[in-house]
Request: fold
Amino acid sequence: MHFAIRRKITWLRQNCMACLGALLGVSAMACVARTAFDFHHGGTMQTPPENRIREMRQRAGQTQEELAHALGTSSGQVHKLESGKLGLSLQWMVRIADALGCHARDLIPPPSGSVEERAGQLTEKAQILTKLVAAGHFRAASALASDLGKALGAAADDFPD
Reply:
């Protein structure tokens, strides 16, 4: 088996997709799909993701030293985590979130196509649909309603309540 594929499979096993999905508030399938997309487009699972640790630490009014003390580690380790020089594992996310009094998903930037972004897009389509119906453009409204229904179904799958 190709080394890169074996490394990715190992990474997936170590970072259970369902657990990661639960922490991030997305489905396990969305995590698997994102991983497959990254793999297909040449991303590597070893590249540390962008994170918001510094932002959340500052929002909590803590210094790197205070956070390090709460985590039982060094401020150098916290600096490496904040700067992305050290990959943010699931275990670190949980520990840091607990120390900062936030949710683990707050430590990483929202994915493109976040709930807010998707809701805005769907709201725009719904407003256009309303205008088409009011203007009597029923065929165009029907096509848009069909597309909107599919988009709402996809959003419900991607962002379960």
About this structure: DSSP finds nine helices and no strands in the chain. The CA atoms of residues 127 and 143 lie 14 Å apart. Residues 16-48 have pLDDT under 50 and may be disordered. The chain has three domains: 3-40, 53-107, 115-154.
